[in-house]
Amino acid sequence: MTDIPAKTRASLWSGLWRSPMLLLSLTALMFAGHSVIGRLAVGEISPMTLTCARWALVLIPLSFAARGNFRRDLAVLRPRWMFVIVMGALGCTAFNALFYTAAHRTSALNLSIIQGSIPAFVLIGARLAFGVRVGVWQAIGAFVTMVGVTAIASQGDLARLLALTFNGGDLIMLLASVLYAGYTVGLRNRPQVSGLSFFTAMAAVAFVTSIPLLGLEIASGAFIPPTLKGLALLLYVVLFPSLTAQLFFMRGVELIGPGRAGIFVNLVPVFGALLAVVLLGETFALYHAIALVLVAAGIAIAEGSARPNAAPR
Question: pLDDT tens across 53-79, in order?
Fold first, then answer.
């Protein structure tokens, strides 16, 4: 086989970088794989160890790749240091710490489907933070999505819903989804620097803020040293959800805005359900099917009514 010519590779990459639908769909696929990884990691590597190690390893290629841009962009980032800290601590450290904790208490299917609530929270956050108008059909789509999330959190049991006896892992994942929605909304107001520089700064914050969590895990006796399988899972998390997916997601938000980009997170349950059933052999119950139909309907309603006039930067 002959290598792909450099000009062709550059053209393919340029086409990908200009296609928000492809970038965000690939992001959703990698996030869905992350849900499966979260379940596979149980007993192989402890949650805070995975959280801290992923950002420590991500910083290695980022520091090399961003070294030129970062020095130039530091003058812009420095006055926004509090914003960078909040984004890195909430969107990177807290979200992933809660995600891995939830993975010890609920299924990969639930982890994937509950992430379908993120677009609804993004619409609410964009309205509160920036006064972005939410159309009637977008509101209906968000509501339908939330109904789907409620179906999965209550496991299709009305009595469980009325008694508020949800699975603890589901509630933790729902809180993580709220934090990631806030991170998504915040990306709209990120400093005017390259995405690589901004992500490098957030990754550094994520690593530093995850160290105390690792210390608490060790002190509580919950530390699990990574096995060979745990190290392989860590490598996947570093290369895809931590690095590639984050850069793709930031670029997607830059192209079409947080509201429309957030809608694509609804693809995570679709991909996640398929991966969980195929790779983990998890049971696909009727309430999973109902939730997926509702989530798919929500994305169709909200995205179909969205105006393609988000202001890219």
Answer: 999 999 999 988 888 888 899 999 999
DSSP assignment, residue 5? P
Report the phi/psi class of residue 131: left, alpha or beta, with left for phi > 0 and alpha for psi in -120 to 50.
left
Residue 135 pLDDT: 72
Find out whether 110 and 170 touch, Cβ atoms under 8 Å.
yes
pLDDT by residue (tens digit) across 269-301?
778 777 877 887 877 778 778 877 887 787 677
Cα–Cα distance list, 258 to 31, 172, 253, 282, 283 (Å): 17, 23, 5, 32, 33
DSSP 60-105: HHHHHHTHHHHHHHHHHHGGGHHHHHHHIIIIIIIHHHHHHHHHTT
Q: Which residues contact 279 (CB under 8 A, 6 or more apart)?
A: 36
pLDDT in tens, 192-240: 898 889 999 999 999 999 999 999 999 999 999 999 999 999 999 999 9
Residue 13 in tokens: 């990459």
Residue 187 · residue 251 · CB < 8 Å: no
On whether the CB atoms of residues 51 and 213 are closer than 8 A, the answer is yes
SS3 30: helix
Q: Are 276 and 36 in contact (CB under 8 A)?
A: yes
Give the pLDDT band of residue 4 (cuts 50, 70, 90): low
- Output the pLDDT for position 166: 62
Task: Encode 254-282: b = buried (16+ Cβ within 10 Å), e = exposed.
Answer: bbbbbbbbbbbbbbbbbbbbebbeeeeeb
Torsion region of 290: left, alpha or beta (phi above 0 gives left; psi -120 to 50 gives alpha): alpha
Q: What are phi and psi of 154, to 5 degrees?
A: -90, 0
* Cα-Cα end-to-end distance for the chain: 40
